[in-house]
Amino acid sequence: TITNISNQAIRVGDLSYFTAEVLLEKSADLRLGLSAEVKVPNISQLGVVTISVNALQFDVENKPFVFTGAANNPDRQKVEIGKNDGKIVEIIGGLAAGEVVLIPVQDPFAFMMGPQGGGARGQVNVIE
User: Fold this and answer.
1) Considering 31, 43, 78, 90, which has the largest number of Cβ atoms within 10 A of its Cβ?
2) 3-state class of 119 per DSSP?
């Protein structure tokens, strides 16, 4: 049981830590000075379709879509998005579980080659 959480975070680099007090049941595994790292999810859902946020694209009207199909001839699929945690996004329409989604790989040297060399050049990473 959490009995107390500090009001202010301790920042170390890009991470924020909160000191907390936790009441634990007696256990032979507990030792004096023992510390722990606890991650608390802010969203937890079962049975939903999710993809990497890196696979999500937006058209000129800011409507979300993904690339599906073969990497050498991808199809553009409109999707409806739900909750996300900055890394994973829930898909509530437009995709079914098990469909292959393509992730465009941006050319890191595109800015040096002008408009001809930029963007996704047909290379994709596939996640299932």
Assistant:
1) 90
2) coil
DSSP E strand boundaries for 1-128: 2-5, 10-12, 15-17, 20-22, 49-52, 57-58, 64-70, 73-78, 80-84, 88-93, 101-106, 120-127
The type of residue at 89 is: V
Condensed to tens digits (0 to 9), the pLDDT of residues 65-113 reads 999 988 888 899 999 999 887 788 889 999 988 888 988 876 655 545 4
Q: CA distances (Å), 15 to each of 11, 82, 113, in order?
A: 6, 26, 36
Asked if 105 and 124 touch (Cβ cutoff 8 Å), the reply is yes
Cα–Cα distance for residue pair 103/57, rounded to 1 Å: 9
